Amino acid sequence: MPTLEVGQRVRMGDRLCPTGNTGIGVTGVQSNRRRPAIHFAAFYSASEQYMEMRSAIIPAGGYWMDPVALFRKRLPLDSSSMKALPEAEKHIPISVMFDNGETFPAGTKIVWPYTCTHK
């Protein structure tokens, strides 16, 4: 598990925790052999308040957000509405950070949660 505290600030490129297979084997069946994993989920809410639900901290009145919507930087935010967009609005460039710390496009503030190998 990450050793971060709620409210702790992190910077782009900080390693939060290891990632890997969450336990579903190549046959599609749950495996008993699990490796460390981080679940990438995004929520959105008009409220600045949050609550603890089971082992997660989520925004009060929050909804699941399509992670790709982060890169659109405008509404809609949910998967169903994203899927219903006209084809011309579905092309969304994803910003990345390379393993050498360089971002593309340069100066971007939001990157895909995994670094890419720079070739």
Structural class label: mainly beta
**Alpha carbon gap, first and last residue:** 31 Å
Rg estimate, integer Å: 17 Å
* Strand segment tally: 6
Q: What is the typical, i.e. mean, pLDDT?
A: 79
Within the largest sheet, what's the order of strands?
A: 1-4
Q: H/E series, N to C? A: EEEEHHEE
What share of residues are in beta strands? 15-25%
Helices, by number, come to 2
Q: Could you list the spans in which at least 5 consecutive residues all have pLDDT below 50?
A: none
What share of residues is helical? under 10%
* Biggest beta-sheet profile: 2 strands, antiparallel
Which descriptor suits the 3D outline? Answer: globular
Task: Provide an overview of this structure.
The structure is a single chain. By secondary structure, this protein is mainly β. It contains two helices and six strands; from the N terminus they run ββββααββ. Strands 1-4 form a two-stranded antiparallel ribbon. Strands 2-3 form a two-stranded antiparallel sheet. Strand 2 (50-53) and strand 3 (56-59) form a beta hairpin. The two termini are 31 Å apart. The relative contact order is 0.13.
